[in-house]
Design brief:
The structure holds two protein chains of two kinds.
Chain A: H1 3-20, H2 28-67, E1 69-70, H3 73-78, E2 82-83, H4 87-94, H5 97-128, H6 134-141, H7 143-146, H8 149-159, H9 166-173, H10 188-213, H11 217-225, H12 230-241, H13 243-258, H14 262-268, H15 279-289, H16 295-326
Antiparallel strand pairs in A: 1-2
Chain B: H1 2-43, E1 46-51, H2 61-72, E2 76-81, H3 84-97, E3 103-107, H4 108-116, H5 123-126, H6 135-138, E4 142-143, E5 146-147, E6 150-151, E7 157-162, H7 163-169, H8 179-191, E8 195-198, H9 205-217, H10 228-243, H11 255-263, E9 267-273, H12 277-281, E10 287-290, E11 307-310, H13 320-331, H14 333-343, H15 351-360, H16 365-372, H17 386-402, H18 407-422
Parallel strand pairs in B: 1-2, 1-3, 8-9
Antiparallel strand pairs in B: 3-11, 4-5, 6-11, 7-9, 7-10
Classes of the chains: A mainly alpha, B alpha/beta.
Chain lengths: ~325, ~425
C-alpha cells in the first residue's frame, strides 16, 4: 500500500508526459520542454510525496526508532532514550507470551479467513441468481459491516456470556452443559474468532459478488448447453475466473485480520491470561493496556506484524506477476 | 497494458490535484484560527486545566466550580476533559512537546508514573501545605519522599449487600467479620437458591484493584506475589468459583458489569466502590454495606481510588503563582466538601473535611471508615513499579480463575514476571 502510490507518482507521471511529446517539434527545444514538463510532473507529485513522507514514512521510521531504543516513560518525555539495538526484539522473541501470541495469531487469522471467504463466496454465488428480495437480503448481510465495532463486539460478548448469555441458555435448554465461552482458556480464542468471522463475511461477500458480475453470462449459458450442472459450473467457471479477485480478497482480509485489536479487546482483553492474546493485542496491551505505557516492546511487536503482512503482500505480488506472465 | 498505464497516470494527477486542494484548504483555515487565538490570549490570562470527567460538560456544576476558582485567581480557566486512560497518555505527550497544561487532575496510580518523568512539580516547590491531608491518601502521590500532588478526594471499595436476599436466606450481615463467616454466608445464600457474590476479575487494572482487598486482607505484600498469604487470597476467590458462590463471568467482569449484575437483584453481595452510593440508594431492593473483611477479622485495607491535583512543570515559572491559588481554592476544607458533594462519591482527604461531610450526610459513615483504612496502590515505595506488578497480579488472577493454572502456579509465575519487569 505504502509504496505503490509513490511508484505511480514518480514513475508513471514522466512516462505519461513523454507520451505527449511527439506533438512538439524536435530539436533544441525538445530538451527544455521535456525538463519543464518533468518539473510540472514533480510539482504534481510533490504534494503526494509530502503526504506520503508525513503520514507513512515518518510514522514507520518512528516505529522502528521506538523499537531500537529503550523508551521508558521518563525517556519518552525527556527524549533521551538509550539505544539498545535489537534488545527489544530479543526480549519479545524470548518472552513466554511470544509462542502463545504467535500461535493465536495464526489460528485467529487463518481460521477467520478460511470461514469468511468460504461463507462469503457461498453467499455471493447464492445472490448471483437474482430472486425476489435478493437485493434487500444482500443489503442486510452488510449490517455487520455498518455497525460500530464496539457495538457488535459488546453484543457478541453478551451473547456468549457464561451465565446469562443467549447461546448458553439455548445450549442448556437442549440439555447441554454451560460452556464458558469467554472465560475458559480452551474456548476464548474460538469465541473471538467466531465473532470476527461474522464481522468479515460482508467484506468478502461484497468483493466476491462484484467479481462475479464480471464473469460474462454467456460462459454459463455455454456450459449449461454442454450439460454442466451447478456444481461443475462452480468449479470449472466461477472458481477459476474468480481467482484474481479471490487472491486480493484473501490478501486484504489477511492484513485486516492480522491487526484486529478492537473485537478481541472488547470481548476478552486477550484473556483469560494470554489465552486469546494475538500479536496485535500484545502490542496494544504493552503500549496502552496497562498503567505504564511500554512503547519500545510494543513497537517491536508492531514491526513484526508489519513484516508478516509485507511477506504476504510480496507473495501476492509474485503470484500476480506469474499470472500476468502466463496469460 | 498501454491503456492501463494511462489510467494510472490520470489517477496520479487527480490525486495530486486533490491533495493540493486539501493542503490549500488547510493552510487558509490555519491562518484564520491562529489569528483568532492570538486575539484571545491577548485579552487576559488563560490557564489550562485537564481532568478525567468527560461526564461533566460545559454547563455542569463541576465546570462552574472550576471556573469560580479561576475567577478568584483573576484568570480564565480553559477546561478539557479526557477519558482516564487517555488523560495519562495526553499528559505524557504534552510533556514531551513542552505544552503541559497548568493543572491536571489525574488518577492516583498515575501520579508516580508522571512524577518519574520529571514533568511534575513537587508540593514543596509550590509551597502548598499538605499537613492536614490523611497520610494514607497522600502516600499514593509520594515518590522518593516528595509529594507530587494533593488528593482532591478519595473513594474505595466495600461490600454491598442485597438486604432482601440476605433476610430470605436468613443471613445477618453483622455476622460477616472474616473470610470464614463470609464464605459461610455465601453457602447459606446459594442454598436458599440465590446467587452469592460478584466481583471484577477482568485482565486490566480493575481486576487488580478488586483483588487487592483480599490480597492485603490476608497479610500479603505486593513485593512478594507468591507468598503463602497471597496464595490463600487467590484460593479464596477460586474456591468461590468452584463452589458456584461466584459466577464464572467474574473473569471478564469490569466493575460496571459487576454493578449491573448486582442490580438484577439476584446477587447477595457485590464488591464495588463509593461511586455507586447513589445508584445503590435507587436500587429496586434494599441495599446495605459491610466492610470488606480481613482473613481473620477486622477491616481489610482496600486500595484508594480518586484523583490527585498536580501541577506540571512550566517553562514560564511566573505562571506558578496563579496556579497555586487555583490549587489552594480546590483544597480548602470547604473546597473538599464541595467537590465531594458535586461528585456524590468522594470522601474528603482531611479529617476536617470528613467531619463536615458527615455532618451533611451521615449515611456516608461506612465509606469514611473504609477510606481511612484504605491503602494507596503505589505506596510502600512501589511507585512506578506498581503498574508492572499489577499486570503480573491480574494475569495470575485470570489464569487461576479460568483454570489455566493453580493459584500457587499462577502466582509463582506472576512473581517471576514481576521480578523480571521491575529489575
Amino acid at each position: 500500500m505504502t509504496s505503490t502510490p509513490a511508484d505511480v507518482g514518480s514513475r508513471g507521471a514522466p512516462r505519461g508526459a513523454a507520451g505527449t511529446t511527439p506533438a512538439v517539434p524536435p530539436g533544441g527545444r525538445r530538451r527544455r520542454t521535456l525538463s519543464s514538463s518533468q518539473w510540472a510532473a514533480v510539482g504534481f507529485a510533490a504534494p503526494l510525496l509530502v503526504y506520503l513522507v508525513l503520514f507513512y514514512a515518518y510514522p514507520l521510521w518512528r516505529n522502528i526508532d521506538l523499537s531500537v531504543h529503550d523508551y521508558t516513560i521518563r525517556a519518552f518525555v525527556q527524549g533521551d532514550a538509550e539505544f539498545v539495538g535489537l534488545q527489544n526484539y530479543v526480549d519479545v522473541f524470548s518472552s513466554s507470551t511470544f509462542p502463545t501470541a504467535l500461535w493465536n495469531t495464526v489460528v485467529f487469522t487463518f481460521g477467520s479467513i478460511a470461514f469468511q471467504f468460504t461463507i462469503g463466496l457461498a453467499l455471493a454465488v447464492f445472490f448471483r441468481s437474482s430472486f425476489r428480495l435478493s437485493s434487500t437480503l444482500r443489503a442486510m448481510f452488510l449490517v455487520p459491516w455498518l455497525l460500530p465495532l464496539i457495538v457488535s463486539a459488546s453484543t457478541w460478548a453478551w451473547m456468549l456470556n457464561s451465565e446469562n448469555g443467549i447461546v448458553n441458555s439455548v445450549i442448556t435448554a437442549f440439555g447441554g452443559e454451560q460452556i464458558n465461552w469467554l472465560t475458559s482458556p480452551d474456548t476464548a480464542l474460538l469465541s473471538v474468532t467466531i465473532a470476527n468471522i461474522w464481522l468479515g463475511i460482508p467484506f468478502n461477500l461484497v468483493i466476491l459478488y462484484s467479481g462475479l458480475q464480471n464473469i460474462p453470462g454467456e460462459v454459463y449459458e455455454a456450459a449449461s448447453l454442454d450439460g454442466a450442472g451447478p456444481w461443475r459450473q462452480f468449479w470449472s467457471i466461477t472458481f477459476p475466473l474468480l481467482r484474481p479477485v479471490s487472491a486480493i480478497t484473501i490478501l486484504l482480509g489477511l492484513i485486516y485480520t492480522l491487526k484486529v485489536v478492537d473485537v478481541i479487546w472488547v470481548m476478552t482483553t486477550g484473556g483469560p491470561g494470554d489465552a486469546s492474546t494475538t500479536l496485535a493485542i500484545w502490542s496494544y496491551r504493552e503500549a496502552f493496556g496497562t498503567g505504564q505505557p511500554d512503547f519500545s516492546p510494543a513497537a517491536a511487536v508492531g514491526n513484526l506484524l508489519i513484516v508478516i503482512a509485507l511477506v504476504f503482500g510480496f507473495l501476492h505480488l509474485r503470484l500476480q506477476h506469474r499470472q500476468e506472465a502466463s496469460s | 497494458m498501454q491503456h492501463h498505464r494511462r489510467t494510472r497516470t490520470t489517477l496520479a494527477a487527480t490525486t495530486a490535484l486533490a491533495v493540493v486542494g486539501i493542503l490549500g484548504a488547510c493552510s487558509s483555515s490555519d491562518g484564520a484560527s491562529s489569528d483568532g487565538a492570538s486575539g484571545d490570549s491577548a485579552a487576559g490570562g488563560t490557564y489550562t486545566w485537564w481532568d478525567p470527567y468527560p461526564q461533566h460538560d460545559g454547563s455542569s456544576d463541576w465546570e462552574a466550580r472550576v471556573q469560580a476558582c479561576g475567577e478568584d485567581a483573576g484568570v480564565t480557566i480553559e477546561r478539557t476533559a479526557y477519558d482516564t486512560t487517555a488523560l495519562t497518555n495526553q499528559a505524557l505527550l504534552s510533556a514531551q512537546e513542552g505544552t503541559s497544561p497548568d493543572v491536571i487532575l489525574i488518577d492516583n496510580p498515575a501520579v508516580s508514573t508522571l512524577a518519574d518523568t520529571g514533568m511534575l512539580t513537587t508540593v514543596d516547590e509550590f509551597g502548598l501545605d499538605t499537613s492536614a491531608i490523611d497520610q494514607n491518601l497522600l502516600d499514593a502521590g509520594v515518590v522518593d519522599g516528595s509529594a507530587y500532588g494533593i488528593p482532591i478526594g478519595a473513594n474505595t471499595l466495600s461490600l454491598y449487600y442485597n438486604a432482601d436476599v440476605l433476610s430470605d436466606a436468613g443471613v445477618d450481615p453483622a455476622s460477616i467479620t472474616d473470610w470464614d463467616s463470609l464464605t459461610a454466608a455465601l453457602a447459606q445464600v446459594t442454598d436458599a437458591g440465590h446467587k452469592g457474590i460478584t466481583f471484577a476479575g477482568i485482565g486490566t487494572e480493575e481486576g487488580s484493584f478488586q483483588f487487592l482487598p483480599w490480597f492485603w486482607g490476608s497479610g500479603a505484600d505486593l513485593t512478594d506475589l507468591s507468598s503463602p498469604e497471597a496464595v490463600e487470597a487467590l484460593e479464596l476467590w477460586k474456591g468461590w468459583l468452584d463452589e458456584g458462590y461466584a459466577p464464572n463471568t467474574v473473569i471478564n467482569n469490569s466493575q460496571n458489569t459487576v454493578w449491573e449484575e448486582f442490580l438484577t437483584g439476584d446477587f447477595a453481595f457485590a464488591e464495588n466502590g463509593t461511586w455507586q452510593v447513589n445508584s445503590a440508594a435507587e436500587a429496586e431492593f434494599e441495599t446495605g454495606l459491610v466492610q470488606l473483611p480481613g482473613k481473620d477479622g477486622g477491616v481489610a485495607p482496600a486500595p484508594t481510588g480518586g484523583e490527585f491535583i498536580v501541577a506540571p512543570v512550566q517553562e514560564d515559572t511566573a505562571r506558578y503563582d496563579v496556579t497555586r491559588q487555583i490549587v489552594e481554592c480546590m483544597t480548602t476544607p470547604e473546597g473538599f466538601v464541595e467537590t465531594a458533594t458535586t461528585f456524590a462519591y468522594y470522601v474528603p482527604p482531611t479529617a476536617e473535611g470528613q467531619e463536615q461531610l458527615l455532618a451533611e450526610n451521615p449515611d456516608l459513615e461506612p465509606w469514611v471508615e473504609a477510606v481511612q483504612s484504605a491503602k494507596g496502590r503505589t505506596s510502600d515505595g512501589l511507585g512506578n513499579d506498581y503498574p508492572l506488578i499489577s499486570e503480573a497480579l491480574w494475569t495470575a488472577v485470570q489464569n487461576a480463575l479460568s483454570g489455566a493454572a493453580t493459584p500457587q502456579e499462577a502466582l509463582e509465575a506472576a512473581q517471576a514476571d514481576a521480578e523480571a519487569a521491575t529489575s
